[in-house]
Amino acid sequence: MRQRIGRIEPRYLGATLGIALAIVLYFADAALKASGSGGVAGYWLLLFVLPGVLAGAIAHRRGLPHEVEKEGALAGLTTAHFVAALVIASLIEGVLAIDWTQYAAQVGQQIAEGVKAAIVPATAIAGIATLAIIYGGCVVASWLGAAAYGGYAGIVGRGAQAERSS
Fold first, then answer.
1. Are 76 and 139 in contact (CB under 8 A)?
2. How many alpha carbons lie under 13 Å from residue 10 in its C-beta half-sphere?
3. Can you say how many angstroms the Cα of residue 126 is from the centroid of all Cα atoms in its chain?
4. Distances (CA, A) of 113 to 12, 89, 91, 124
5. In sequence order, what DSSP letters do the residues of 5-30 get, joined into one string?
């Protein structure tokens, strides 16, 4: 079993952590909103540095210190694919769940028809903007996590090397 895990690229192990984080934060947000709270606070998104830290640590440990940042960024990119699919599915579900007859009864038929005509382009624009934020955020956060780990490993490595030589 350990040999199989040893062959998995660090980016995929980091991305697995990122996907698990996304699922946990998504359900925690839904549960908090259902209980009347405002949902998950934005600072929890800082956890998305962890896939990069994990990927960087694994790459460094496997003797690939020059690929720490690359593996971290790729872990973020792979995480972003999943998060993007999750968010786009939520946007589509939100648009499809609108009860147009009830909405027309509340605001009037003419306004409801105007909103109905504008909802698809507005959702597409919101989706594109959201994708840019998701991909940029996940990749940069994971890259920063890997870079931080690489810096830490470099400092600790130089300290241990100096200790051995004295």
1. yes
2. 27
3. 17
4. 46, 24, 20, 18
5. HHHS-HHHHHHHHHHHHHHHHHHHHH
- Would you state the structure tokens that stand for residue 51, as one six-digit string? 């896939």
Whether 22 and 146 have beta carbons less than 8 Å apart is answered as no
Is 139 within 8 Å of 77 (Cβ atoms)? yes
Decide if pLDDT at 164 tops 90: no
Spatial separation of the C-alpha atoms in residues 97 and 109, rounded to whole Å: 18
Where in the chain does DSSP place strands (E)? none
Residue-wise pLDDT tens digits, 28-80: 999 999 998 888 888 898 999 999 999 999 998 888 888 899 999 999 999 99
